[in-house]
Design brief:
The protein has two domains: 2-175, Rossmann fold; 188-277, 2-Layer Sandwich (Pantoate--beta-alanine Ligase, Chain: A,domain 2). Helix content is 38%, strand content 19%. It has helices at residues 7-19, 35-47, 75-84, 95-98, 119-122, 126-141, 153-165, 195-200, 203-216, 221-234, and strands at 2-4, 24-29, 50-55, 89-91, 145-149, 171-175, 238-246, 261-269, 272-279. The strands form two sheets. Strands 1-4-3-2-5-6 form a six-stranded parallel sheet, with helices on both faces. Strands 7-8-9 form a three-stranded antiparallel sheet. The structure holds pantoate.
Length: 283
């Protein structure tokens, strides 16, 4: 596996593959890779002859009080993992390569609508940072397919919207959430958890499953959401939200609406903020 850090080397490698008629799959990441990322790589591999991954901790998607500085940077380990999982090319740019005018002065991509709620409401500016860097990475790599994890469900909707509205010639493919045996969704942020917090963390997935069961049992959505917040607090979390929404646009479902729903939770455990979701698949 080759590692490149600048746009010219990236484009030269991809041009060579394209001249041989090979399709390119892309998995953008912020590094500190785990089996969740490698499952996305396998999906890309199954759809394209060549696979590119990026590792870039994107400053513009972190708020001023968030974990940009301490976000784990493990490039050597990531390179070894990507090579072992069939990645052909790693793009690992620095901040100046992605933001030549500086992160504060960059052209910004803003996706309206779906970014106004949930993560967008709790992390102002976060999705502008995500949409901007994803647009830039897609323009640099110009893949045929790009794979995004469903664990960041709202991010997936944001990426689909920008690809549609800006007519980017790429197919966005969702990757199912990978979980630890106790149900905790795999995430680079899990390593921030102390032993006691790690033992409590699966309560998020358990609460999502409970929300689905409670709605299926006929309890009103608002009652289920309020009870889910209580369950999380009881388990030691400080929840930001625990809601049931339409999966396709995160709008509030009408009373009695049961198809195409999803439960989403964001909650803090000590200093660590975790998110997870559970699509109901038609209820
Ligand atoms: O999901 C992530 O790791 C990041 O938000 C992404 C898509 C790589 C953009 O920085």
């Amino acid at each position: 596996m080759q590692t490149v850090t600048d746009a010219a080397a990236l484009r030269a490698a991809i041009r060579a593959w394209r001249s041989q008629g090979q399709a390119v799959g892309f998995v953008p990441t912020m590094g500190n890779l785990h089996d969740g990322h490698y499952s996305l790589l396998r999906i890309a591999r199954s759809r394209a002859e060549r696979v590119v991954a990026s590792v870039f901790v994107n400053p513009t998607q972190f708020g001023p009080n968030e974990d940009y500085a301490r976000y784990p940077r493990t490039l050597a380990q990531d390179q070894a993992g990507l090579a072992a999982h069939g990645c052909d090319l790693l793009f690992a740019p620095d901040v100046a390569t992605i933001y030549p005018s500086g992160p504060e002065r960059t052209v910004t991509v803003h996706v309206p609508g779906v970014t106004a709620v949930l993560e967008g409401a709790h992390r102002p500016g976060h999705f502008d940072g995500v949409a901007t860097v994803v647009t830039k990475l897609l323009n640099l790599v110009q893949p045929d397919v790009a794979v995004f994890g469903q664990k960041d469900w709202q991010q997936l909707l944001v990426v689909k919207a920008l690809v549609r509205d800006l007519a980017l010639p790429v197919q966005i493919v969702p990757g199912p959430t990978m979980r630890e045996p106790d149900g905790l969704a795999m995430s680079s942020r899990n390593q921030y958890l102390g032993a006691e917090e790690r033992a409590r963390a699966p309560a998020i997935h358990a609460t999502l499953a409970w929300m689905r069961a409670a709605l299926r049992a006929g309890h009103p959505r608002e009652v289920v959401e309020a009870a889910a917040l209580k369950r999380l607090e009881h388990a030691g979390f400080t929840p930001d939200y625990a809601v049931i929404r339409r999966a396709e646009d995160l709008a509030e479902p009408a009373a009695g609406e049961s198809a195409g729903l999803i439960a989403l939770i964001a909650a803090r455990l000590g200093a660590t903020r975790l998110i997870d979701n559970l699509p109901f698949d038609g209820l």
